[in-house]
Amino acid sequence: MHQRLQARWRLVGFIVAALLNLATPTASTAQDTATGTVVVPGPDPTGMGPATLRGSPWSIADRVQVDLGYTYDDNVTRGRAADEILADQLLGLNVSVGGTLRINDNTQVVVTGMLNGEKFKSYNGLSNLSGGLQAELQYRQSAAFDAVTFGVFARGWLDNYVSQLRDGGHIALGVNAQGALTDRIGVYGELAWNRRYAQSDVWDLNYYSARLNLDYSLGHTGTVYLSGEYRRGNAVSDGRPTLVNVSLAQVFVLDDAFPGKQLYAYRYDARTWVGTVGYNLPLGQRASIDISWRRAQGTPIDRPDFDVQGSLRYVDNQYSVYLLKAF
Amino acid sequence: MTFTRLFASLAAAAAALLLASCGGGGSSGDIHPGTDTALVAGEPNAFLLFPNPQVQPDGSLQTDSLAYAQAYFAAIDPNNTKDTLAKWKAANGFDTGTGTQVTAVFGDSRDLGFGRRITARQNPDGTLAFFVENYLVKTGAAYGFSPINLEAAIVRDPKSLVYLAGIEFSPGPAGGSSFAKFFNFNVVTGAREIMVDVDGRGDKAMPGPCLTCHGGRADALTPPDASGKPRFNLLHNAVSRARGDTQGQLPPFEVDGFQFSTTPGYTRAEQEASLKTMNRMILCSYPLPAPSTFPEDACRRPAGAGEWQGTAAALVKASYGGDGLPNPAYADVDVPASWRAAGQTPLYTTVIAPACRMCHIMRGTGMQSDIDLATYEKFQSYADRTYATVVNRGNMPLAKLVYDLFHASSGEETLANFLGSQGFAARDAGGKPLRPGRPIADPGPDRVLRQGVTRLSGTGSLFANTYAWSIVSAPNGALPATLTDANTAQPTFNAASDGTYLLSLVAGNDLGPSAPKLLTLVVNNALTPAPNAIRFSDIKAILQDGNKCQGCHSPASPLPAPIYFTNEDRDGDGAAGSATDDAWYYAEVRSRINFAEIAASPLLRKPAGFHHRGFRGEGFDTSMAPGQPGRAKYDLFLNWVLNGAPQ
Hints:
heterodimer, A: mainly beta, Porin, twelve-stranded antiparallel β-barrel, 13 strands, about 10% helix, B: alpha+beta, Immunoglobulin-like, 4 domains, five-stranded antiparallel β-sheet, five-stranded mixed β-sheet, globular
């Protein structure tokens, strides 16, 4: 019984973490470019647990998780040129509360409410408080170890930034699938359509994303995970009002998150790759320390009609350490 | 059931989130590249138009019409040998390895705001050609120069290339003296454009947007010739004697007013030599009023007595150290002596040099050159027109960027001080300089008329959409006069008794009412001819009365004026003075009427002694009240004009 509960918890935790991982509006969400997540990795996904849930069909607030952490971001502007790149540090706090509705032996709905906050050290305009709700309909064909769980999800967020231009919200619709390859390796994949709305058209974004996550369990010593994500669609960078940037831009605005810097945020179409390497170290049954390195690079889809010296690609690195605590 | 409720709740929550998350549709600071500058309703918008745009009876502006542009190109290129960029460049010898050819790239921060890449060449036969690529990165932001326009010119960004201009200085189709011709070409097809939008404020007909600052005139077209098409006007003071020679000139490059890049190869220092070469070429296009032994003048032809006297040559020379052009780099000239002597150095440095000089120095004739504003006294003599155009009408400075820069500069204060010293109310009640855009009532000029019904017109009022007329006073013992439609632009006035009536017009717009403007109407039922019976023959009779006008305005004059008042073979059919010639004559005289601002018409101002080489015609004394014998001819001209100048 205890093992089943533990496995169930791991399953739910993995799903929540995976969704959190996508939804957490952190430093990168401020720009909404590639680096969508600072931390909150996917813990050990190997114990997928049974699809069937026992007892009451409604389990309200059956999981609560609090994450608290620190991130160093070497390019919060997603800048391309040296004089456009600014680094910063931030503290993040994420709280999630989830509930589950069992529909039948194979299907359930997972509902999660989340509240996230970020406080940036140097560029307070990026600091934000965001709250949202997500719902996912999950289906698992059987309780077999190698059975795949499929999901369809929707989520919506309200974002409040110190930078007023970014205030607004975003929604996402998508599908996912998760399963275990071996007793140590779990895999999670997701396809999503993302739409963001903001006070400034610069952050009115529309993009598609595809994500693949691999977790490798080290047993009691933790989990190593790798994640890769590809985004195609609108992205935002900050830069000087140069011909190159204006040529790339669909819309731009003097960014109120970097006062005195004369940086303009501009929206453009990009191909963005995000890679994450992390290690999750358990601290007892319901807590862990998570260390991760995320690297994102975004490349404009369209090029100016003139020769451009240097690369049009931006590169961003985020180094994070988070404490994860479940209740 | 639980399941249904759950999803209903989720759907409602999602909808609420979706609605709540909408950000509001863009902030006011958003800038969308590629969008044109939005025009602001009610603000002045007569930029790059001639002050006299040749208003036609239907209200259209002839100088801004397709027919005007077509007539221009028919005059300078009747066989369409230069109707594409490729043909034009070939005709002017570009990239042939002959002659001299240089290129410069700079930011035109004080004129039209473009990044400009100019390639200039001087052919072995002395003809000149300037090919100008104009780059503008459209951001939809406030109109103005941006350094990224210069960047675009450096990298030759095709998306930012907004128009291609070609200016050549060469003989006309029939040969003869060279004169400046202006072309624009489509950036995609290379086809010659007859309409062009150079300031984001809509298409305007060629060559108007060029000529307004290049010194060219905007005389009306002739009536249709035998082919059924009107011809471009012939200016009789032009040495070329070619239609299409508008007396437009090539302005010198005021290098100090440009912006340059720090990109290697495009710095100012690296381009000074090319720019000096260009200025030296331009100097060659200026007529030489007196013999010179300096080598830079060897390429200049002697000036005709009636044409522009090459006034700008002094500026070019002074900017390079004087005769001989000894200095390698351009440096703006010192304040001219007349301005210093008058204690008007700030007026010159903050108003004239940045906002007036470059266009005005291209203007003037051998007969009369006050308009070049070369001295303080000349500028002072134009104080009334400066007040009218800069403070009231907003059509000067005539380019939007220069206009904006002027009103944002200390020059606005300096000019208000000057105008105040000349007796003009150039400040509001709070002491701030007045700006165009406020309503200004214009009931028309004081006039003499007969008893009965006369239609008045306040359509010359500026920035107005409401009108309130009233009779302020009537002569003692007169029968009552009436005004009908007194709240319209064109009421009717009906006086049954002779005498002097004083009327008032208050115009208004959303900003409020204007100051009242008084109109004096002198009713004289013995006036002959009746105002509505005046025809061109009456005007012609005065113009051809002895040598009063024809002394200068004729082929016999040693100092030819742009227009002849003598009977000539105007249509070129071999016979002078025919009915057709008379129709062409009428068109030329009507061309001297500014229906956009009647009081500013040369046909009225010149004989009244304004900028007319000191001549005031008998019967044109406007210091007298309407109806006085000393201004009877003026009154006749005025009533003809106010009646639409019927033929």
